[in-house]
Every structure is written in C-alpha cells, then in structure tokens.
Description:
Blueprint: H1 5-14, H2 17-25, H3 43-47, H4 49-61, H5 65-78, H6 83-97, H7 104-110, H8 120-123, H9 127-146, E1 154-155, E2 158-160, E3 167-172, E4 177-184, E5 187-195, E6 198-199, E7 216-225, E8 236-240, H10 245-249, E9 258-260, E10 272-274, E11 278-279, H11 282-291, E12 297-301, E13 306-307, H12 309-319, H13 321-334, H14 337-343, H15 346-349, H16 352-363, E14 373-383, E15 386-395, E16 403-411, E17 414-423
Parallel strand pairs: 3-12, 6-10, 9-11
Antiparallel strand pairs: 1-13, 2-14, 3-4, 4-5, 7-8, 7-12, 8-9, 14-15, 15-16, 16-17
Helix pairs in contact: 2-6, 2-9, 4-5, 5-6, 6-9, 13-14
Amino acid sequence: MPCNLNYxxxxxxxxxxxxxxxxxxxxxxxxxxxxxxANTHSSQELARAEKRLVEILAQIERREINEAFRAxxxxxxxxxxxxxxxxxxxxxxxxxxxxAPMGEQLAQSQASPSKRxxxxxxxxxxxxxxxxxxxxxxxxxxxxxMDLPPPGMIPSNFLHLGPNVRHAIAVDAxxxxxxxxANGPQGMTLLGNFYVTVGRNGVDKRAEGDQRTxxxxxxxxxxxxxxxxxxxxxKGALTVNYPNDWDxxxxxxxxxxxxxxxxxxxxxxxxxxxxxCVVLSNPxxxxxxxSIDRRTPVLIADKLNWVTPQWTIQQRKKDSFMLEIEHxxxxxxxxxxxxxxxxxxxxxxxxxxxxxxxxxRLSAVGPLSKLAVDEMSVYNWQEDAGEIRIVxxxxxxxxxxxxxxxxxxxxxxxxxIFSEDVLS
Length: 424
C-alpha cells in the first residue's frame, strides 16, 4: 500500500492504534546494535520514558502528528535503547516524508535483539516474532494507561494482609503489568504499576527449562545487587520461593525464578522473552529493590481479578476459614491429638510420632499451652488442581514474632494443612 497522508488520515479517523504499530513492524530503518548505553542518561529520564511514550501515542490518536513526531524524536535521542519507541519514530518519519515501504526483510536486517547480553530465550526469537513482540509491547503499554484498576480495588487473592506486610506485588501476565501496593492502617493503596516481560513460552510453569513463568502466590527471598550478577540481570534481582510447597505437591520443577532488570544496552524486553523470570526495566527494578521487604508477597496470575476490600471481608466470613486458624491454635494449646489429626492432612498427621515432631518444631516459638497468633496474612490461590490458602502466622513471643507458614487445601469441603514450616 502506498504510504501517504491520506492513508494516515484514514487511520486516524478509525482510531485503531494497532494499524500504525503494524506499519512500524515493517518500516524500521534504525539499527539498535550501536545504541548508546542507558547509563549515559539520568535515572529520571529513564523512569519517565514509558509515560512519555504513552503521551505520544495519545497525541497520535488526537491527530497531533507534528507534536508526536517532535516528542518521539526527543525520546529516542534521550533513551536510544527504547526499541519500541524507535519503531514508532521510524514509522512516523516515513509517514511524514512519504517514503516508500522498505520491506520487512530490509527492516529485519537492520534491527535485532541485543546480541551481547541475550539470554537463552532471546536466541530462539526469530526476527518476525521479535517485531511482533515490539508491536505487542506498544499496545500493552498504551492499554495499561487506559485501563488502570478502579480506585480502591485490590486483587482478590489478597484475602487479608497483616500490619507487618508493608507492600504487596501482583503481576497480570496477560497485560504485561506489575502492580505495587502499600499496606497500611487504611488498607492497601496502589503505589505504581510497571511494564514487565514474562517467559518466552508464556506462563503456567511446569518443568525446569520450559521457559514459562510460574503462576501462584510467592514471597520475596533476598535481594541481589546488579554488581554481583551477570550483565543480563541489570540493576539487580529479587528472588522468589518458586517452587512453593503447592508447586511441589503438583510435581512442578525448576528454580531460580526472579524479578530482575535488563542489560544496560536495553530499556525493556518484549512481552514474552525471559527464561521464566519477571523482567522489568532497570529504573523499575531499582524502585522495587529500594521499597520491598523480605517476604513481601508476589502474586503472579494470568489475569488479575479486581475486587473491593469489602469483598475480601465478606469472603472471609463466607468460607469461615479464619475459624480454622482458631481451631488450630486451640488444639495445640489443649494437646487435642484427635482434633489435630483432623486439621492436618493424612500425610502430615500420620499418627503420634509425626505430631510429636511437629510439636517439637512449634515449641521453638514458645510454650504451646500459650500459643497465640499475634497477627496473620492470608492468601488465596485456585486452579484446576484445587483451592488453597497460604497463611503466614506471626506468633506472639516477647519482642520477637516468629512466623509459621502454612499451606491449607480444601478436601471434601474441609480445610486441612498439607504443609507447615517455622521460618527463621
């Protein structure tokens, strides 16, 4: 199709962003191999890059083409390794000049994923798929700006957060988005949301090396600064506890699932490009590392379900799960073996000997006759294999507050503990 302003005007009248993005796929004439390192630009410029890109896309939709071109020119000069912005710049340039389409083959020969720092997943991305990924990246960034969660809404998996949980993270893989919440006396408040990359083959990790991102509720383990990691991980990483105890019950394998940054010659990766980790831009991972505590919950879902805080309160009352925690405390205080055998699953109860071992572990947090939960956090997870609750119990013990983490599963309408551990 000839490239001219009449065509572009028709696109503007239709307000269909994906048409422009599709053109960008076959018209980029820029080489990113020699792009300047992001380290030469201020962290403030990098942190604002997505906001600027979204504003440019909005300008295009408002038919402010000259303004959009000036803005994207400045953006690509200041953040040259922002590949999605480079594609948009190339297409706007072509539309302004009326140049003939270069053809996909020539465009592919001029641009490719980073060679120096690519991971295993990048090596299997063909040029055409990489371009499709960039198009998807632009669409998802724009969509995220228009579809923010309704004010006050939270993911339904966060049933109850105790006051010791200062932050919570939720990832919506279908939208390539990570949401960060602060938790305080007034409940959860959305602090920010960031573009992310997930596994090369999508989500629902099952096995080592499947290049998928796991789905479930996890917790931050430790921070690893970038200087202690290969360049691939950028400014640093936050580890999570995949596989968790539910994953192990389901026979899922693999390890080393992190939230981490990108190499210095990249601003971001396409939506599906990692070996299974959740990948953010370096300014975004730096923000998380400065904000997030150890054991911060990390929910990874294919699609988040947003609810009101009142819904979670009603849900807790409806399924009476909190009563099970009280029954657990009472049974240990009273030494009620029969009750404990019904609370723990068959593989965990296993008679007197196993209960004595469990009693010994729990006794490390204090006399069981005085066992008292200081506060708790409850997380819900449901999939075809079953419905579970993950509970972090903070036990009252003088100036310290040891944590007992439990995994409960609903069996024949009854909640039972299938895993329990005392965290150091």
